[in-house]
Request: fold
Amino acid sequence: MLSAKVQQSIQYCFKNFKTNIPNFVSRKEQNYMVAQTAKILGGDFEKSRRIGVIEAGTGTGKSLAYCLGAIVLAKSLNKKVCISTATVALQEQLLDKDLPLFRRISDLDFSFGLIKGRQRYICASKLELLADPNASDPQATWQQPPDESTIKLVKKLWRSWTNKEWDGERDSWATPIPDVIWYQIQCDKFGCNKQLSAHRQCPFHKAREKIDKLDVLIVNHSLLLADLELGGGKILPEPQDMFYIIDEAHHLPEKARDFSSASSSVLATMDWLTKMDLLGKKISDSMKSDQLIGPLMKLSDHCNELRSELKLIHQWLTNNKSLFNNEDNRYRFANGVVPESLMPLAINCEDLSKLALKALNKVHQIVMESYKDGDISPWKIEGILGDLGTTIARMENNHKLWAMYKRVDSKNVAPTVRWIELTDDTKSEFVLHAAPIEVGYFLEDYLWSQAMGAILCSATITALNSFDHFRRSAGLKSNDGTQYIKLNSPFDFKNNGELIIPKMSVEPSSDSFTHEVIKDLSQRLTKKDATLVLFSSYWQMNQVAKTLREQHKFSLLVQGEASRNALLTLHKDKCDNKQGSILFGTSSFSEGLDLPGNYLTKLIITKLPFAVPNSPIEQAHSEYIKSKNGNPFMVLTIPDASRKLIQSCGRLLRNEGDKGTITILDRRLVTKRYGQSLIDSLPPYKVTIEH
Reply:
């Protein structure tokens, strides 16, 4: 239960906002979210399960609400708050705007910071080896010969780091650092080891030292999941010591699936395994230790045996090449079941990769002990640990893949998706993949059951006005104590926004639909409005743009022809100068795009955002639902389209005073039975159906 002191602190902070922020509008939706966030995390509803799912419509002010409800409580309990987001834009907003404002106005004493993965930082030793002309270590070599500009940039990076003019973090460098350079100087968990004296002052380790001092940590979903996959408390503080705020929560299940998946190329892995003896020789030549003999011999034996098994798998795939005679050059195992002729090989690969991984970890342990004992020089260990780190990571991925192929799925849960792609017909190269259909178990085991408390929020969590679709994908249950709250936007949608469904002669399934879109847009677009047109495909967008430019002389800003930031800057400049601007984009422009006021008055959506189930995971999920006598279109496709349509329409009204129209060029909204359900799930715009 929330103590009287905590309740008074929250009320005092909220009063400060009303008093000190000019034109601050106290909204009942925001007030309710503050109270419910604090009550859920405080255990008022369920002490053992402090989880809440909150959909807060645009304009609710959810950032202030969850900060006020969570940070005050966390401070009183000596807990930390971890805010996880899906986008960099929201991270920057929290870091540069929301949290500084909240700390200043609330008069609360708390520290906050952005936590990034180690691959966003340089390894100072790697950078020095590439930048220092006096470095004689043979490992200081480029993967490909560098040109003069590359060498110049590397030396500039090194000077800036040594002169303390740069903190060694990739995103803080003034200009983009090319991947070809960054991949050779980035920190990795094995090479950049804090136990090595040369790495104790590396930027990653210095950044990590600050975590213990922070009260509020800002992370992205990927870093959060990486910590959970390691068991929690390895990168971030222990889950039981934190309240989690999962903002943009609708992205979390998909991110979790990515972390639970694995893939591996057959021929590339066989080639890599042949080089394992060279790694062993390099290590044994660099340090004389009898302890290495046994583990290196075991490693060599296991890798040779693993390569032999992979050769048999490659023969099996080559003999069954007819399986890949389709448009995608792909074969997915029905219901995820690996055939009996392949299963023994998968079992052997899992066993051997596990043994090889054990031997590699033993070698790593001996190398580190030898370094501590002074038996290997700091310069030599850099290259060894770098190679070992890469090798261990690759073996871990292989073991994960074969463990997923070996596992026999329970009949009570959705099966693992297992598929193979023919990526090079000439060389007969195959890539094996495995991924779970459902990831709720991962989130339940590693996050929901471990965390002190969690609030999941977004402007778009429900689908068809129901939490069911999200609840299932996130591993939550309707009766597990989780609280579900839907807060409508305070905006006046009926008077400020109009939804128009025009008369179209054909539906999107028709071959002439693109022509129909061109015909409609040529009449609907004007050169004075601030317009965003959202397309379902790049192909259609480019076809429409080409015709409108050539035949109707429209000036268009088209996604892909310049960077997103450049296009938005041009769009806003034209609007600021009282010129019309027409911006074309695909699905990535339907979320996280903020064009308030006169930057957007006309939104046009060419087609309902139905996903085509062409990925193996989507196909397998549909197959699984059918096996349970369900309808995949109603269970998956419609709810997903509903959420995406809400996101797309949410681009129009960003502030309470914004006004404009939304036009959807898809008559299925009125011709299909599901159309009204999709309309009903949208905010209550004035609806105009043209006849």
Summary: The chain is about 45% helix and 15% strand. Residues 493-689 form a domain with the Rossmann fold fold (CATH 3.40.50.300). The longest helix spans residues 343-372.
